[in-house]
Amino acid sequence: MRDVLAELARRVEAGEVVGLATVVGTFSSAPRPPGAAMLVGADGQVAGSVSGGCVEGAVYELAQQVIAGGTPVLQRYGVSDDDAFAVGLTCGGIIDVYVEPVSAQTFPQLPEVLAAVQARQPVAVATIVEHPDRLGRRLVVWPDQVDGDVGSARARDAIADDARGLLATGRSGTLHYGPDGQRRGEGMTVFVNSFEPPPRLLVFGAIDFAAAMARMAAFLGYRVTVCDARPVFATRSRFPEADEVVVDWPHRYLAAEAEAGRLDERTAVAVLTHDPKFDVPLLEVALRLKLGYVGAMGSRRTHDDRMRRLREAGLSEGELAGLSSPIGLDLGARTPEETAVSIAAEIIALRWGGGGERLARTDGAIHHPRG
């Protein structure tokens, strides 16, 4: 969505009216999550996707109609029927797509939203996608301010409060109210699109595996930090894909980041040093924080020695249970790049609740809710 947002802002700034299609609801095995978006320009060019190809053609035509008519539309796309030319999701899911015309007049806060996203500041856009006469009105919600008009102070207060709750957890989703923002009842549906800063991956140990891990994590959308106490190895030239390269003792750097409030439950830590003088003090800090993932590289023998040292340092069995060691999933990886895939796969599986098995040997839903 961030790339679509940048292209949207560029076109709107040039005075164009753009059709913006956003996934606002998903059911069953929907291919894209809420917030996925597709832009259709007045020149017919497209950016982004709402379904990975299943219904893009139909959404494209609808967006052109919305640009011409000026009225937003909420459209549901479900399972294809036996007609090979039917518009539907071949994966079997259902998605609700909200298509709206966007211009400088309909979305005056767009430059501020883009600036916040580019500055890695949290911001949410709450748009009324169902209502008898307030369709398309929106609020832009920051942690400390609100801009926009949804027709009444009551609705504004309710939507802003709930949008902040979604923003704090990094989730996008729909909210339901009475016609004037009542907490009970129906008549108004609001989609909140949360733009949170990207999750962080902290890689400790400036080795060749770290370089591969930095490339992989950057590709997955993480803000990557490589940290090592040895300045001869921790250099920008060795880790061009990292957002920052830090020369510091790993445990000291991690403790300082935690103290400054720059870590959260989406943060992943990959300890690749497999040297006790570095990784034991570091893991003492990491395993006592509320992080999304803590993994440590090493052989089975290194793992056993590390666990013994951590127990001697006073970590409880509950804290030690949060350690993924040896790091990664069992892919048979050998090269740094294959190992990076193994580690990334484990992070993804833990984040979304996947089991790491081959899908061909499992039953049930392919897509998991947040883990």
What does this structure look like?
With 371 residues, the chain is an alpha/beta fold. Helices cover 32% and strands 23% of the residues. The protein is built from ten helices and 16 strands. It has helices at 2-13, 56-69, 110-118, 153-169, 208-219, 250-259, 276-286, 300-312, 317-320, 336-352; strands at 18-27, 37-40, 46-48, 73-77, 94-102, 123-130, 138-141, 146-149, 173-177, 188-195, 200-204, 223-228, 244-247, 268-271, 293-296, 323-324. A six-stranded parallel sheet has the order 13-12-11-14-15-16, with helices on both faces. Strands 3-2-1-5-4 form a five-stranded antiparallel sheet, sandwiched between helices. β11 (200-204), α5 (208-219) and β12 form a beta-alpha-beta unit. α1 packs across α3 and α5 packs across α10 (336-352).
